[in-house]
Amino acid sequence: MAPEPGSRAPGRVGFVGLGIMGSPMAANLARAGYELTVFNRTRSTAEAWAAAHGGTVAGSPAEVGADSDVVISMVVDGDQVRSVLLGDDGVAQGAAAGTLCVDMSTIAPTQTLAIGAELAARDLRMLDAPVTGSSPKAQDGTLTIMAGGQAEDFARAEPLFEVMGALVVHVGALGQGEMVKLINNAVAAANAATVGEALLVGQATGVDLDALVEVMGKGSGGSAMLDLKARPMRTHDYTTLFKLEHMLKDVRLCLEEAQAADVPFGAAARAREVLVAAMARGHADDDFAALVEALEAFAGTRLGR
Q1: CA dist., res. 292 & res. 209, Å (int)
Q2: Given 137, 181, 229, 249, the catalytic residue
Q3: SS3 at position 94
Q4: pTM across the whole model
Q5: What is the rounded CA–CA span in Å between residue 299 and residue 303?
Q6: Taking each helix axis from N to C terminus, what angle separates 151-164 and 22-31, rounded to the nearest 10 degrees?
Q7: 249 is catalytic
């Protein structure tokens, strides 16, 4: 039987989506003692995860819903969230009244609100709780988690969030978690593009890039993107921590929300164009540090030369 709203006992836990982020997040829950029911679109991925971490592999999201009091989804976009929660064989098809759906994907706030309304019509609960930190922080359980929804639902999911994240913030009503995440990622993309341009200017003017990065890192030019992306940009190592195409999706969604609110976001618009150009050069599946490839093309030079 599902816990009462407001209870801090999550009960039985399901997890849908075992990709780059979902797999280590679910693994942390398993290590904390939760016996998960898991589903992944590619069944062999779920079976390999269960072999490593225990738990039960479900044949559909509906089976996850039937076996769980709280279901976490971590998929690519709004269409996939709708499909796994509300589609044929979706979580809602098997879930009992009061089941809490916690979507940790990054999608448009308007999509979250629409999905939440449909779930509520079936007497199901919802939180949106996107994350930031990329796969290394997913692996060590130090993600930042920003959750939107009712306070009692947040309290119910908070023990799970505390296993997966180092900073867990209830940011407001349903949909506000997504909005905070989109703004954050738009700023990250703009900062990463700025770092790439700074490296190119430094190289073109004869600056020692090691010195530049060291000074910027200790000064007002420092940023998380400098720390995380300067080295990959300089070495052209685009081992994927966060796919470029996913960053482009998030920046586009943020700009759509900004436009709807009649507020300009010029830095994000510029980052979007850089990401589009990098996509066109074949870097969709690479880490978004690969946006430097577009910046190099614009500048007519390449880092390291």
Answers
A1: 15
A2: 181
A3: helix
A4: 0.91
A5: 10
A6: 90
A7: no
